[in-house]
């Protein structure tokens, strides 16, 4: 849904034959994944299929054992080596989790300004202005002085989004951002994500919100037991899935 030129854009994520094990459990099996700037990729699949592990590998939260992984031109080595690239990637890739993971002892404003001040050495005023602008953008401009526990789940998740955006990420990862929310709060978070997609942010999103996926995704990837079974435009994957596994998964969730 965003403006982009697929042909001349170098991928921001370039994953080739990535394998990840937890002990004897083979969680990701020869996963190939390229994401180009401006692309919105939605990953779907059953619980335990490896969706979280896959996106956590992209910002180095999980190490992998074999394969190639390059994020924004920086190479992540197997077994978590090359810590300089890892540090760079962590500052360039924003992540929003299912459990908002806000710092409970910090105000909303301080949650958002912490990383820009510590990592980017932004001044208090400068970081504060950015925080205010971002809070405005996610629709909670009047909440800056509150603490996370004083906010609803939907508001907390929007703070988490603003906090990630404060680092001006080149790529945003979302791991089931609405799964912990009461139903009436899901819409406000999806709206903020929709807006971000419209502005051209590169996004990889794990979600069970199929209506949202259909509307926002440029590409939907179905993963089953650590393997990409099927991928394509949402219309293709949802309306005419080619593989039996995809059909059976979709019949359960749609
Ligand atoms: P999903 O996000 O699709 O539900 P995950 O990526 O969380 O799946 O998990 C994939 C598989 O890896 C599951 O079998 C899960 O139990 C296992 N797993 C995930 N994290 C760990 C871990 N830290 N240690 C051992 N096994 C794990
Ligand atoms: Mg998960």
Keywords:
single chain, 254 residues, alpha/beta, 6-stranded mixed beta sheet, 4-stranded antiparallel beta sheet, 10 strands, globular, binds adenosine-5'-diphosphate, binds magnesium ion
Topology:
Layout: E1 13-22, E2 25-35, E3 40-44, H1 51-58, E4 66-71, E5 74-76, H2 83-92, E6 93-96, H3 108-119, H4 124-137, H5 153-165, E7 171-175, H6 183-198, E8 203-206, H7 210-216, E9 219-224, E10 227-232, H8 234-239, H9 244-253
Parallel strand pairs: 3-8, 3-9, 6-7, 7-8
Antiparallel strand pairs: 1-2, 1-4, 4-5, 9-10
Helix pairs in contact: 3-4, 3-5, 4-5, 5-6
Adenosine-5'-diphosphate binds near residues 27 and 45.
Keywords: ATP-binding, Nucleotide-binding, Transport
GO molecular function: ABC-type amino acid transporter activity; ATP binding; ATP hydrolysis activity
Family: Belongs to the ABC transporter superfamily.
Return the average pLDDT rounded to an integer: 95
What is the spatial order of strands in the main beta sheet?
6-7-8-3-9-10
Q: What is the tally of beta strands?
A: 10
Quaternary structure annotation = single chain
Structural class by sheet pairing and helices: alpha/beta
> What percent of residues are in strands?
15-25%
**Contiguous uncertain segments of 5+ residues:** none
Give the N-terminus to C-terminus distance in angstroms: 22 Å
Largest sheet: 6 strands, mixed
Radius of gyration: 18 Å
- Bound molecule types: adenosine-5'-diphosphate, magnesium ion
Distinct helical segment count: 9
Helix content: 25-40%
* Outline: globular
Order of helices and strands: EEEHEEHEHHHEHEHEEHH
